[in-house]
UniProtKB/TrEMBL annotation:
The organism of origin for this protein: Treponema brennaborense (strain DSM 12168 / CIP 105900 / DD5/3)
Keywords, ordered alphabetically: DNA-binding, Transcription, Transcription regulation
Keyword check for DNA-binding: yes
Protein name per UniProt: Transcriptional regulator, LacI family
One function term, GO molecular function aspect: DNA-binding transcription factor activity
């Protein structure tokens, strides 16, 4: 005779709660008090209870999915944006689905898959430049989409003005009295990604050029991380007989590497060379890094909120929100240093 499988009623009896409470734990756990939820989970583990297929299907209907698609998932800036997204979705019955993009063909394949299968209820596109064909497919589908760092007509967007951020860094360094500017950034090798480094460099260079200070090519490095190329270029700049008196880096991670390299050759920051980063990662405060803040957590929160608003009201007009940029003055570059 086959062994009887435990039911939701067995779980309720073992946990000392009602079957309705067990159902809520399975389908809407945020609505159940922690103490009762723990009792139910303990009973489920003790009895080795497995919900029936229809109960699982019901739970899946309760938890919708928001997709996040981006050209990278290991960079600290992505993790802070993702944290902002998760802070909005947490407790609202939405699961996050991450799509890793390594090539244009993979990006197009993911868009086709999402269009054909509707696997997610909303999509956040981080730092990507989609072709007209892919944008058209998303528009025809009517899927709630929010682009972050890209301004795409007809869609909700959270826009970061990278070029303006570069100008802001230059203006700040100029106000501190620096007149021999340098720049270090990671080259944008992904043609489908927003060229943030190049845009930041463009704004930085333009500000100084307008004041009759062209960037000396000896003080500029746009290279790859791979193979230690970027680190080698940083050392090249630092070991020159004539060096810049300030450097703007396209990210805080690069700024941290620059600070380490400067210390290794006996240079003091900001006395010998001032450094300003970009992003305002959490670690920037820990290393006293002056940087341009782009409110990463806030941009993630805004993107998630706009997707949820679009799910509720698909007929509303698209909104574009510009993330305010600001210089966070710390020890690596400051007025009067």
């Amino acid at each position: 005779m086959a062994e009887r499988l435990p039911t939701i009623y067995d779980v309720a009896r073992t946990a000392g709660v009602s079957p309705a409470t067990v159902s809520r734990v399975l389908n809407e756990p945020s609505r159940v008090q922690n103490e009762k939820r723990e009792k139910v989970m303990d009973a489920i583990g003790e009895l080795h209870f497995v919900p029936k297929a229809d109960a699982v299907a019901k739970a899946r209907r309760q938890y919708k999915k928001i997709g996040v698609i981006a050209p990278f998932f290991t960079e600290p800036s992505f993790m802070q944006r993702l944290r902002g997204i998760a802070s909005v979705l947490s407790g609202r019955h939405y699961e996050l689905v991450l799509y890793v993009i390594e090539s244009i063909s993979e990006l197009e394949a993911y868009i086709d898959m999402l269009v054909s299968s509707r696997r997610v209820d909303g999509l956040i596109v981080l730092c990507l430049q989609l072709g007209d064909a892919s944008v058209g497919k998303l528009a025809r589908l009517g899927l709630p989409v929010c682009f972050v760092e890209s301004d795409v007509s007809g869609f909700d967007c959270v826009i970061v003005k990278n070029e303006a951020g570069g100008r802001m860094a230059a203006e700040y360094l100029y106000s501190c009295g620096f007149r021999r500017p340098g720049f270090v950034g990671e080259v944008s090798l992904r043609p489908y990604a927003v060229p943030a480094t190049e845009l930041r460099l463009s704004g930085y260079e333009a500000f100084f050029a307008e004041r009759g200070i062209p960037l000396d090519e000896r003080f500029v490095c746009v290279s790859e991380f791979a193979g230690g190329k970027l680190d080698a270029e940083i050392l090249r700049i630092l070991k020159q007989k004539e060096r810049p008196d300030c450097v703007f880096t396209s990210s805080d991670v690069i700024a941290a590497r620059f600070l380490k390299a400067a210390a290794s050759v006996g240079l003091s920051v900001p006395q010998d060379i001032a450094v300003v980063g970009f992003d305002d990662l959490e670690m920037a405060e820990l290393i006293a890094l002056s940087t341009v803040s782009q409110s990463l957590d806030e941009s993630g929160r805004l993107a998630a909120e706009m997707v949820l608003d679009r799910i509720k009201d698909g007929a509303r007009s698209p909104r574009c929100v510009f993330i305010p940029l600001s210089v966070k003055e710390r020890e690596t570059a400051k007025r009067g240093s």
